[in-house]
């Protein structure tokens, strides 16, 4: 059960199976109110699948997802392109899933810094403007939980940093929990309270600082551990083969990967529970 | 007034166009024109069955299209299926089956051309009642599911994550499509139903800045196409359905050329993102 008023979302050993293979397995994570949790991992590591389980689009095939049914979710999906046959202005996009007063829509757009684009067609926006509009749309409904699947894609590096700062500000102002999916931890580091690294299962997790400083992290991520970039390029203990099977570091090949199948890092390699409160605003 | 066959055709055609415009917008936005074709072509099989079992043709066509809709929805949930090939298979098989069945039924005299291309002479007062009753129902239901359906058109996952029910909206939309095929068939015929759905909507896109505006405009352009097409068919003794479609296409070209004129006034639809 969820602890009252604090934990917004909890995944317990959640996994999803599709087309004959496990997309992701054994995911444990919680998102508390006012907390930013970042999911990182290489392509195909199950980040988006985990996000979809978290917001209820995909049902877990094992384990469970605990979430108050009344929880108000704001979602920014990973891939969203609006076909040009669809006439859609930014202000109409704001009212996509909910009725919204003009003032609320304007306030949300102002918050992300694109109030001047309210009347623009979404197809004419730049990558950064479009992601800001998507963010404004998600926060305009005053969510308890924001789920952002790669919110900085199509945005240049300085724009990325600005967007993550914005997300961090939004957390402070709305007091919502945020589940952030990213593949570029080097930029997310500063904005996040807790990191969960996925590679078909939870590879390691903890606060970014504790991950960086821990000997487990150095062992996991190799000699360049001191450089934040190294976290992005760290070695996984297994590779997913093109046919979906898994090649482990010990040379064995299994059909799926699971933390308890004996081919992975031992429990000592994980950085343990996140140190609560650390880095919180 | 309704005693004149031409007035009946006009009234019926306008009723169909009012409904086809808004529904057609979703077909354009969702890129499912082929889907509409499949439903429309399966209507011929519905006609054959109706004649065989001696039941109401509109009802039989609706049930057949609805059945095909549901089959497609179920098959599409299995994501690995290529829906393009599947639609092509169902579409032409249903059309061919319908034609073969009709050919076998030598005891019924059918005007095949009327079914394929529409027949203004065949519109009765009952047809008009069915078109306006069914049309009002379609528009009312469409208004009810507008928000989840439109949100799901932009992004299904987003709609689902934020508490709307996109799958139910999609299912209802498919049934509305079946209903519009059943009532539009008399006017433009099974081969051209999709044209009446998508051409006014595509034309409306040139002049619209919002989805609701585009839906209303598509209905208006559809009405104009029906009026122009039917008068042309009366004037030059051309088949009614194709005349309406040609008129709609002419409007589309007018829109296209006015777009070209406004190229530097910012009215050009931007290139698709990414």
UniProtKB/TrEMBL annotation, chain A:
Residues 9-224 form the ABC transporter domain. It comes from the Bacteria. Residues 257-281 have a biased composition (Basic and acidic residues). One of its GO terms (molecular function) is ATP hydrolysis activity. Keywords: ATP-binding, Cell membrane, Ion transport, Membrane, Nucleotide-binding, Translocase, Transport, Zinc, Zinc transport. Pfam families: ABC_tran. PROSITE patterns: ABC_TRANSPORTER_1 (PS00211), ABC_TRANSPORTER_2 (PS50893). SUPFAM superfamilies: P-loop containing nucleoside triphosphate hydrolases (SSF52540). GO terms for biological process: response to zinc ion; zinc ion transport. Residues 252-281 are annotated as: Disordered. InterPro entries: AAA+_ATPase (IPR003593), ABC_transporter-like_ATP-bd (IPR003439), ABC_transporter-like_CS (IPR017871), Metal_Ion_Import_ABC (IPR050153), P-loop_NTPase (IPR027417). This is Zinc ABC transporter ATP-binding protein. It comes from Rhodobium orientis. The lineage of its organism: Bacteria, Pseudomonadati, Pseudomonadota, Alphaproteobacteria, Hyphomicrobiales.
TrEMBL record, chain B:
GO terms for cellular component: ATP-binding cassette (ABC) transporter complex. It comes from the Bacteria. Its main location: membrane. GO terms for biological process: response to zinc ion; transmembrane transport; zinc ion transport. The chain crosses the membrane at residues 6-29, 41-74, 86-108, 129-149, 169-202, 214-234, 240-260. Keywords: Cell membrane, Ion transport, Membrane, Transmembrane, Transmembrane helix, Transport, Zinc, Zinc transport. Belongs to the ABC-3 integral membrane protein family. Involved in the high-affinity zinc uptake transport system. This is High-affinity zinc uptake system membrane protein ZnuB. It comes from Rhodobium orientis.
